[in-house]
Specification:
There is one protein chain. This protein has 224 residues and is of the alpha+beta class. The radius of gyration is 23 Å and the shape is elongated. 27% of the residues lie in helices and 16% in strands. The chain has a domain at 11-131.
């Protein structure tokens, strides 16, 4: 049984349908093997993370002092975050969408403490809320011209389609668009259905728990 990257606690396998990981039985941090990340999200995600982390210093989990090639913090003497597989310390720290991620640049393993997981889940929820906010924001009085965003032809609003705050004619309307209706407070059923289908086509795998969902969100945006 491996030891947590941040404390003496044991790493316990967490079984789910999504991203394989281990969770510390003491501090609730999460460790993700580099090869698991590669298998599920593709090699580009792991490589992008290592590129970001390479050359970065580590951080003490107690006093946040920067750590560089030392087994323990020189200020508070807490052991440096250590790779459970390679025993390398300290782990390099890099930021991905404001979340600090501890990375082993040798085995491509990733460690997230409980606070980072909570931050990550909040960011992922906020991003999904924005993604699925389907309320039309186009209003007649804000339209200087009723033109199709693609072909620029004049479009009567009663014949127009909208998506992502853009107006389209029937010929140019992209997948996920819906008939324009300024009286709607939420998306029409047709828009909701078509958008759901469009979103599902871009889903590579379906997380089944909040942590997997948040990790999927994080790693799928490494290239952004």
């Amino acid at each position: 049984m491996s030891t947590c990257a941040f404390c003496p606690g044991p790493l316990l396998p967490t079984f789910s349908d999504s991203l394989p990981r281990e969770r510390c039985g003491r501090c609730a941090s999460v460790w993700i093997e580099g090869d698991a990340l590669t298998k599920v999200m593709g090699g580009s995600a792991a490589e992008a993370l290592v590129r970001r982390a390479r050359g970065k210093h580590g951080l003490c989990k107690d006093c946040q002092a920067p750590l560089s090639q030392v087994p323990q913090c020189e200020q508070c003497h807490r052991p440096a975050p250590t790779c459970p597989r390679c025993n390398i310390a300290p782990l390099a720290v890099t930021k991905v969408h404001d979340v600090e991620v501890d990375v082993c640049t040798t085995c491509q393993g990733v460690a997230l403490d409980a606070g980072e997981l909570e931050q990550l889940q909040k960011l992922a929820r906020a991003d999904r809320d924005r993604e699925f906010d389907l309320k039309p924001r186009l209003e007649p009085e804000t339209l200087s011209k009723s033109q199709c965003a693609t072909c620029k032809r004049t479009v009567k609003l009663k014949h127009a389609f909208t998506v992502n705050d853009q107006l389209y004619c029937g010929s140019c309307a992209p997948a996920g668009s819906a008939p324009y209706d300024p009286t709607l407070t939420r998306a029409s059923p047709s828009m909701e259905e078509s958008t759901s289908v469009a979103v599902m086509k871009n889903v590579r795998w379906s997380p089944v728990d909040p942590i997997s969902s948040a990790l999927d969100w994080l790693f799928s945006r490494l290239g952004n």
